[in-house]
Amino acid sequence: MTITSLEKLVARLDDRQAVIGIVGMGYVGLPLALRFSEAGYPVRGFDIDPVRVDLMNRGGSHIAHIDAALVKGAVDSGFRATTDMAEIADVDAVILCVPTPLGSYREPDLSFVTDTTDALVPYLRAGQVVSLESTTYPGTTDEELLPRIESTGLAVGRDIFLVYSPEREDPGNPDFGTRSIPKICGGHTGQCLAAGIALYRQAIDEVVPVSSTRVAEMTKLLENIHRAVNIGLVNEMKIVADRMDINIHEVINAAKTKPFGFTAYYPGPGLGGHCIPIDPFYLTWKAREYDINTRFIELAGEVNTAMPKWVVGKVADALNDAGKAVKGARILVLGIAYKKNVDDMRESPSAVLMELLLDKGARVDYSDPHVPKFPRMRAHHFDLDSVTLDAATLAGYDLVLLATDHDAFDYDLIRTHAPLIVDTRGRYAMQPAAHIVPA
After folding, report:
1. Is 275 a catalytic site residue?
2. Of 248, 245, 174, 255, nearest to 424 (Cα)?
């Protein structure tokens, strides 16, 4: 009896002999590599950045919330990073964890996915499973990856196996990590799904199979659009409450005492991160192909995108009430990562706030214990280093803008010595004071 490619692959996965290859060693790829290494697999990490690769091979971490000791432990267990895509031929599983940003007109930019796939296609072989984890619109796996893989002459579902399994990482979340977050998995065929389940069940506590790659792709979008729409709702509620002189955070705290039918979402200065500001536009773009206008989703996007301008308006009003103008004012932005307690700057609204304030003539600095130097970004760059907070430093600014509420900040120090505070995160919401302005 002939043993099929699927049976060979599953046997290697079950015996921990399979080599796991993860392409893209960022906020998604590195935690996944560490988890497979912890589960007892030889893991190879692929990345285009030679500096990052060298750091990992020396047991270092380029992501603040991932302890270097974890990377060192994986290296000691056989993990190795490389820039050489030819080594794809040596792995049994190829997992793509590359960015899927938006273009200049908010259209999907799949160049990282397609260019990476083109680079690895020459080295694909029978008996491998290829999994895409990058967030994207329904149809990407079978429209973009499938034809590229089958151009090699390998039959997907017989020789090689194609799945879509969306990442669900939440950087810095102390309660849920790679292993404990259930893994959605959809295959191009039933055989592909079986390969995907065999891969992920080795490292993830729960694998949730779905009927197709398109269902898996849509599931990821629904998860994040759900959050984007509800954040848009609470941001709009904040604006209304502010006009009515009502504390929106007190309202949320009261509403969430209802034990059913309500989930608390919190307002902020805008959306940030690799998913929530981007994913809705992947679906709205694809929906137009089907002659559908996603008005509800787009409206939430408009509300969230407008929040930085609204915050800057609150800054201008606060300074005006203090007898000062934005032009020439010294403003310190607290927190430039997109969420608290991480160093992740992707789509951070703080960068937009800083640019808007500079455009109005303000002199802007920032303080962020997780981002010591402002990084180079695709759309924003400031030649600034993080300011160390102390009483004299805080007192020297006309206004302190709390944009990201890291736990590492000394909020009593800030409250005592900053002459004027605009709070976009509700950190002082239940401690009102004349010099603290909610935004």
Report:
1. yes
2. 248
Same domain, 78 and 202: yes
Overall domain count for the chain: 2
In a domain, 219, yes or no: no
State which residues form the domain around 127: 5-211
Give pLDDT tens digits for 244-258. 999 999 999 999 999
- DSSP character string of 29-90: HHHHHHHHHHTT--EEEE-S-HHHHHHHHTT--SSTTS-HHHHHHHHHTT-EEES-GGGGGG
In a domain, 15, yes or no: yes
Residues 6+ apart with CB under 8 A from 354: 333, 336, 364, 366, 380, 382
For residues 320 and 289, give the distance between their C-alpha atoms in angstroms, rounded to a whole number: 48
Residues near 197 by beta carbon (within 8 Å), at least 6 away in sequence: 185, 207, 209
Task: Give the pLDDT mean for 275-296.
Answer: 87
Residue at 217 is within a domain: no
391-411 pLDDT tens trace: 999 999 999 999 999 999 999
Question: Do residues 367 and 408 lie in contact, with contact meaning Cβ atoms separated by under 8 Å?
Answer: no
Q: Count of CB atoms within 10 A of residue 375's CB?
A: 13
| Helical (H) or strand (E) element with 234 | helix 213-243
Which candidate, 237, 228, 230, places its Cα nearest to that of 264?
230
In a domain, 288, yes or no: yes
Residues making up the chain, counted from first to last: 439
What is the pTM for the complete model shown? 0.91
